[in-house]
User: Fold this.
Amino acid sequence: MEITRRCDYACRIIRAAYESGEQYVSVTEIAEREQIPLAFARNIRSELVEAGYLQTIRGVRGGIRLSCDPAKVTLYDVLTAIQGPVGVSPCTIEDGYCSCQNTCQYNAVWRAADKLMNDLLKSLVLVDLFEQGAGHPALCAVLGNAE
Assistant:
């Protein structure tokens, strides 16, 4: 499974909105700061608004800000809102993808990997991730870092 550029940009846009607090920040400013093509940033903004993670206001003082509680939203939530199910292989996500799904030993390995990855992503609440970064306990536990 590859985190798409769209998902990476969405995460960076949400982090920038979090960092702006209650202030609205322009998509243009975020795109420049995060090195995201403006048209792409606008498109992703619309998806994040539709998913309920951002709110937007038009005008000179307009822009975006968080509309969700970052203490209740996980990285998994954001990724699935933008990309859909998260998995290492289509055969673990799409029923009927492969005729060997129910008998394949590798399918069981891919499902196990999906569970581990999704459990990690679900444990990363946005506010903790934004505040702790690479020092987040879940990341340190997996990476073996002593923070």
Notes: Helices lie at 5-19, 27-34, 38-50, 75-83, 90-93, 105-123, 126-132, 137-143. Strands lie at 54-57, 63-66. The longest strand covers residues 54-57. The chain has a mean pLDDT of 91.
